[in-house]
Design goal:
By secondary structure, this protein is an alpha/beta fold. It has three domains: 4-109, 2-Layer Sandwich (Nucleotidyltransferase, domain 5), CATH 3.30.420; 114-208; 211-331, no CATH class. The protein is 53% helix and 12% strand. The protein contains twelve helices and eight strands. A six-stranded mixed sheet has the order 3-2-1-4-5-6. A hairpin with a 4-residue loop joins strand 1 and strand 2. The termini are far apart.
Length: 341
Amino acid sequence: MSLIKAVGIDLAKLVFSIHGVDVNDKCKLRKTVKRNKLLAEVAKLPPCIIAMEACSGAHYWAREFTKLGHDVRIMASKFVIPYRQNEKNDANDAEAICEASTRPKTRFVSIKSEEQQAVLCLHRIRQGAIKDRTARINRLRGLLSEFGIIIPKGRYPLQNAMSGILEDAENGLPFLARELLNDLWQSIKGLNEEILKYDRKLYALANQMKDAKRLMSIPGIGEITATVVVATVNDAKHFETSRSFSAWIGLVPRQYSTGGVVRLGRISKRGEKHIRTSLIHGARAVIANCKNKTDRTSLWVKELVERRGFKRATVALAAKNARLIWALLHSEKEYQVDYVK
């Protein structure tokens, strides 16, 4: 065991595959361990690199292994796939994880604390509730159209019209349909209250988090964006430049260049979808309210809208805000309007 340099662990619910190599990359450990014996098995190892794929439970195990003195590395599965030999199985996956962990160009995920994961848990539950509400609103609109009642798209037109539709005795709705649609409408109102409760929790958290309060000083960054960024990004120094941070969010152009010819397309949309969506929504709100403003950012945005259109300007401002977020987190400074270096 003393010669082991790196260990790859293929995570699962009950049974884990382990693959370890020495300084000469020779296999010295290859076994299967049950969940209740994994920590004891890892505790027997000398301090070494322990690598895992980013998946459910990875951050929990990373925190536990770090307590035992190991150098824990979590990576995306796309960095593991090229190193897997032969067929896909747990043992081959563990070997590929071990191999990828020692490659110089492999990028690793920062290990999240329990507090960060709790904030992300709130975001995920809120997202799920919003998705459920949208699905039920679409279902209600579709069912109403079966009886010749058409409601414009959007949540607010439906919410404004539903009480009148259910109370109108002359719209041709059968009693059973009226009863069932009322139940569906009540469930939508319940989701509205649930989402509002989560929003209030996020607003309270944002005012308690020092970094989130600094980020909210950037135009277009609100409580939702600030808290999800702080909870997701453990250390901004993990990214070498602001562009690499923006690329991680998926706000840089997709590139297809060859033969010395540079071809840039639409944004890549890789990485953190929730952060990217929040940044774009925030940028849209900024552009909608910048008509009478004369600061540098507003003047730049207005010129960009005229030259390239509203949607491209929205994405450009979102990318700019992503770089500002990296700068504030990296330097630990406050945001300054019209800052000139």
